[in-house]
Amino acid sequence: MKPARVALGCLLAVMLVLPGLGTRILAEHRSNAVNVAAVDSSVGNWTDGQGTSGMSDVLKRVRSSGVGALVVGMRSVRDYVESGDLTPVDVRRAGRGEIPAAMERPGQAIVIRGRPYDPDGTFARAVEALTTRFGDRVSTATTPDMVPYLRVAGARDLDDVPVGYDLGRLRLLWQAGFHVVLALPARVTSGRTWLEAELDQAASMAGSRTVLALGPLPFAGGSVADLNGFTEFLRSRDFDLALPDMYSPAGDVAYASRLPGRLIRTHVISVTTDYDRQGMVVRAHRAEKERGVRLVILRASGTDPRSQLPLSTVLDLVPPLTRDFPVGLHLGTPEALAAVEPELWARALVLAGGLVLLAMAAFWWLGSMARRRMAATITAAGVALTGVAGLAALVTDRLLPWQLVTFVVGSAGAVLSVLAAMRSAAGPVRLVELTGLAGWGESPRGARREGWGRALSAYALGVWVAVTTGVVVAAFGARSLSMVGLAPFIGVKALLVGPPVLVAVYALLLYARRRRASLHGAGAGAPAPPWGRRLTRAIRAVRPRHILVTAVALALIGYLLLRSGNSGAAPGFELSLRDTLDEALYIRPRFKEAFLGLPALVVALLLTARGGRFGVGWVAAVVAAVGTASTVDTFGHFHTPVAAALLRTVYACACGLVLGALAAAVLAWLTARPRSGGKRSKSGARRAGQSRRSGQSGQSGARVAPTRQEDVRG
Q1: Closest C-alpha among 199, 249, 196, 243 to residue 221
Q2: 110 pairs with which residues across the strands?
Q3: 20 to 30 Å CA-CA from 400: which of 57, 156, 240, 529?
Q4: CB-based contact 182:199 (threshold 8 Å)
Q5: Bigger pLDDT: 314 or 711?
């Protein structure tokens, strides 16, 4: 297959996926408001012991610093006990007549006393919550001086039982100008009806319709009826659900699949005492640019909900968080990501675009095999099976088959980009051929380009194929569930390993055909030695440098696998470099592309274009496959906007071209043959290059078969 056909096939694939991809791109630019929030329990710590004027002053300072929202959670029985609104009573130690006689019944029970006359309704709301939870085991009584009591028979611990939202507190925060985010309880003990009523009352009081899940979502592990009923309640009341971006609370996929268009990505920052101010700001902005985060929450470090976050820390962190937003974003009330569910015909076109890439890669790779008919059969069967899996995913709306097809298409495109570029660098390629116009008119003037010109054209073709594959993969992820990070691209580690292995196998097959052609051209008629003797010779040919290079390569592969994926670990120096690049370039290029894979692609193409050694060029091509696979993976981060992925790829391609050119120049200088006096001989190197290009061995003028890649059809 000619490079021109590959370029045209990629153009066709892009045109096929445009309807589905366009739906995603439009949705990515509808929500541009970002808000910074603090946890209300921390605000409560700052205002403890202060009067109304002192509390108002603290709230004004927090609001003027840039904090636009406060996260308010339900208060439990323990919270009200600690605040003095409720008081546990030990019946055995109470004096005679101190508590109502109804509270002194025998048996295990917990007795709680409220404040006289229940001025803010806390006691009544506690009775309502406990009655919903324990039923007729709850009894109440009031003393003549209007002190209310409640008794829960058979209970041993009520500390973690939620009582509900503090309506008075919600009213105060709303009057202070804050956008209130209602935190859902991690454990619902009083039933769905009670929770829905609490949310309705709290939302009406606070004027807010945003709920947050920092822990397990309600009813996620319970009955499906409760789950469906509660999600339907949230949708019917126009509630938006905020979900964290760096971890997945239990039940997030179930909720997200039932609430498309109602999800807000949230970045939770746990602030330690020795926090890095600049690092936190850069990483928060990175979350806004790369992961679509629209709500940033500051909270105290640790799992203890009573841990405190100093007011001075918030006043220090919030101004830079709200002052220098990424381009296109602004401070305001966050909006949910628009629902993205392309029509069936648009998703079918996306599948067709993926099959175009898969067919080109399969025919190219299997074209290196000797038995062409068998290769064609295998290719057709593979493409057909992938198409059937994609159609099954469309019909049944199952996620896993669709993800598997996405992985296959991404891997195939990463391999195709390297093979097409190598073929373009090896053969007589014209610029008109790369644009797909060859054969439509007169051939352009000029002879075949040498060296840099051919390598640059081949590099452009390889990058075009890789970016096309990434765009197609991004179209596969054009769904709300994928764009909020809950249906990710599967097989990231396999994507980084598979294409290099396939390129290496292709190179070995190519070398075997070249070897057979060389022996046939030399008139060799002796039978081939047995496999045992071949293996012995291969083992004896191994040198310590080969073992060292293999060990280094395996160590690099292991490191790449450990730090790959959305949660891969990265060392501290790399995190610092990431922060620097993010500040300088708006969005940083990925390391595996800019500093490893794409520079190796430039080296491989230059060696091939100049008639360099077969093995060295293809070793560099194997490394280059890591870069093209990483380019595909850039677009496989479905939570990253497509525009950001394109900008990141442009940076990576530019860095790869510059670094690859420098590496190729250094390699050419190191491998130049010196004269007897120690100086490097330009004429000798030039003669050697001419000898290789003409297919001569350089020793006694013996003719060997040409080693150019174009002798093997793609």
Answers
A1: 249
A2: 152
A3: 240
A4: yes
A5: 314
